[in-house]
Amino acid sequence: MSHGDVPAGDAGRESVGGEPAPRRPTPEPTRRLAENARPLWTTQALVRAVPVLLGAWWVAHVLGEIDGVPGVTGPAVAAIAIVMVVADIFVLPRLRYRLWRYEVREQEIDLVRGAFTVRRTLVPMNRIQHVDTKRTVLSEAFGLASVVFHTAAGDNEIPALTEEQAAEIRDRIADLAFADAEPV
Hints:
Blueprint: E1 15-16, E2 19-20, H1 37-65, H2 73-99, E3 101-104, E4 108-114, E5 118-124, E6 128-134, H3 137-141, E7 144-151, E8 154-162, H4 163-177
Antiparallel strand pairs: 1-2, 3-4, 4-5, 6-7, 7-8
Helix pairs in contact: 1-2
């Protein structure tokens, strides 16, 4: 990092007696995903439910045929699968939507996401190598797209944006991340 560079989140810090001022907390992100995120995630959960329920039915059936396995084991497996599928369809999409926030700032991208475990990720703009938008057949049916930005450490994604928002955010990230890049 050169002398004039400011680490992510340190913009506006002034030095006191030659030492940097204490780091101010990064404000929480406030931008929400598109409203269609919940129905998209619910539909994805419905698609996932089919193989899960079929697999649970098969396991329950096989366990019922094995001598020495308590008769309650098969129905218990089926009940657990049903509870998991119901939570995936009805609870998780609402919880994920309620908690998902993002912010694209000059120095970093701030992501807060999760359902039961909430993660907050700050990605410095100067670490982004490239950025793109992603659509699947299902997300396109809901008019949604994602922005994926890549660093040497891996990929991060802002999902379930309107296609217009995704294009704008992709372009903004590209402008901020590559502003100091030398032309090739």
